[in-house]
Write a structure and sequence with these properties.
Blueprint: H1 2-22, H2 28-45, E1 61-63, H3 78-92, H4 94-99, E2 107-111, H5 118-129, E3 132-137, H6 148-167, E4 171-177, H7 179-182, H8 194-207, E5 216-223, E6 239-244, H9 250-261, H10 272-277, H11 284-300, H12 308-320, H13 330-350, E7 355-359, E8 369-372, H14 383-404, H15 412-427, H16 442-466, H17 468-481, E9 483-485, H18 486-495
Parallel strand pairs: 2-5, 2-6, 3-4, 4-5
Antiparallel strand pairs: 1-3, 7-8, 7-9
Helix pairs in contact: 3-5, 6-8, 9-11, 11-12, 13-14, 13-17, 14-15, 14-16, 15-16
């Protein structure tokens, strides 16, 4: 309604000016006056109280009602949840902690890879403590205009106090995601001090949180790059506690899969424990995507329940991407089949039962691939295990060389992986160089990497040459069927033994 009124007034004003001009009046003073009024309005609008810079103008997600996420909804983070809940209990047990002389924590920093549930934990904390919850991202405080970022920080804290009072709560949680954007080490951005001013204001606001305040505020922040943060931000008295939110182990992955399987119809053949075993290195977000993609696969196939095959297809899609429309030529398919067969044979040699699936169907950037799964999650590797991994990497290119007398460019990714493993072996002090420094000469490092890989490559060539008949049979089966499960692969390998 206001917009229509403004348009009518503006139209009448222009009509009057045109009428006066036609009647011979000098309209220059009127035009100058209008221009002056317009400029004053623009200048006032661009000031510090402009809606453009007003942080309370829907800039932050404010939840005066408590988020409906609880800690039981978060799987695979039992240790992180225990540590987090202990810190939150300082808000609950106000009288007890005062009697013991405990200073309540002002800030908790959640550190971990993307997709591990840091935001969910912050929301669950608001539910657990019955607190007003306000969420913001570090990037929302970064501005090119001097003083704006610092003002936004002040208004953020004013808002949490105001919302808590309005909702009748005596506690509030401020959640800042991607705090590494806001809290990076000061002095890095020499061309603009706005970043430092904004961080200084955040430090001031955290320091201003008092124990005896009517409304107690806890600052929760999340990052996957804690190494970038300014030391002043994570010292005791500010972010007092750092909670590591790591990738889940096998039991954690199974818990997460069960959570996301709720409400989904599963067929009798579904084995979530097997899927958990095959998803080492997956975050909670990856696992949620696996369950969702499996349901989509079932819908596409017109099935009423999600099957184990749907879950396997979903797993491959999350890992590698959708199947591609591009079709390799027959000559390329033959090369890919021998390449993947070589990988699979070496994988089975170094660890029996490790091959989960082999395919020459293109997905993402992969023209073909084998999917492996360890017997259990592994975090430490011996020298022999690292050398075995290098052998698996080099088996594809070596198989091509044995059959065709030359290699293809399809081994580029494998070679890069072999080089990284060789570097890991060298800097762990497990190579012939012994313990080395990070400043190891580039030429010495390169020579040692080449020596390690060539040595393992010779072992691979010797093994595959001895069982060339098996290599050919497996490759032919792949060409005929395009995909083999681990069980099918081992049956063929057993028959040719």
């Amino acid at each position: 309604m206001k917009l229509i009124f403004k348009e009518v007034v503006l139209g009448l004003f222009l009509a009057i000016i045109v009428f006066l001009a036609l009647q011979g009046f000098d309209i220059t003073p009127i035009i100058l006056l209008g221009a002056a009024i317009f400029m004053i309005k623009v200048l006032l609008g661009s000031g510090i109280h402009s809606r453009r810079f007003d942080v309370t103008n829907n800039r932050y997600a404010s939840l005066s009602c408590i988020p409906n996420i609880v800690f039981d909804d978060i799987g695979g983070q039992e240790a992180a949840k225990r540590e987090f809940i202990e810190a939150l209990d300082f808000i609950h047990l106000d009288k007890k902690i005062r009697d013991l002389g405990i200073r309540p924590l002002k800030g908790i920093l959640l550190v971990g890879p993307p997709g591990t549930g840091k935001t969910l934990m912050a929301k669950a904390a608001a539910n657990y403590t019955d607190s007003v919850f306000i969420a913001a991202s570090g990037s929302q405080f970064v501005e090119m205009y001097a003083g704006v970022g610092a003002q936004r920080v002040r208004q953020l804290f004013k808002k949490v106090y105001a919302d808590a009072e309005k909702a009748g709560k005596n506690t509030g949680i401020v959640f800042i995601d991607e705090i590494d954007t806001l809290g990076a080490r000061r002095g890095k951005n020499l061309s603009h001090m706005e970043y430092d001013q904004t961080l200084n204001e955040l430090l001031t606001q955290i320091d201003g949180i008092k124990v005896n305040q009517k409304i107690r505020v806890l600052v929760v922040a999340a990052t996957n790059r804690a190494d970038l943060l300014d030391p002043a931000l994570i010292r005791p008295g500010r972010f007092d506690r750092i909670v590591q939110v790591e990738l889940p182990d096998k039991d954690g992955r199974l818990h997460i899969l069960k959570i996301h399987a709720q409400g989904k119809p599963l067929a009798d053949d579904v084995n979530l424990d097997q899927i958990a075993k095959e998803t080492f290195g997956f975050s909670g977000a990856h696992l949620e995507s696996v369950m969702n993609e499996a349901a989509i696969q079932a819908l596409r196939a017109g099935e009423k329940k999600i099957t184990q095959n749907n879950l396997r297809e979903a797993l491959e899609k999350v890992m590698l991407g959708e199947k591609l429309d591009r079709k390799p030529s027959m000559r390329e398919k033959i090369i890919i089949a021998y390449h993947e067969s070589g990988h699979a044979m070496l994988s089975e040699k170094v660890q029996t039962g490790s091959v989960s699936a082999i395919t020459i169907t293109s997905r993402g950037n992969a023209l073909g691939y084998i999917r492996r799964h360890p017997e259990e999650d592994q975090y430490l590797y011996t020298k022999s295990e690292l050398l075995d991994q290098i052998q698996i990497c080099m088996a594809g290119a070596t198989a091509e060389e044995i059959i065709f007398g030359q290699r293809s460019t399809g081994a580029i990714g494998d070679i890069k992986q072999a080089i990284n493993i060789a570097k890991q072996l060298i800097f762990a002090g497990l190579s012939s160089l012994g313990v080395v420094d990070d400043d190891l000469s580039g030429s010495i490092l390169s020579q040692e990497i080449s020596r390690i890989i060539k040595e393992q490559e010779e072992k691979v060539r010797e093994y595959l040459s001895s069982f060339e008949d098996r290599l050919r049979i497996i490759a032919q089966e792949l060409l005929d069927r395009e995909k083999l499960s681990g069980t099918e692969f081992r049956k063929i390998l057993g028959k040719t033994a």
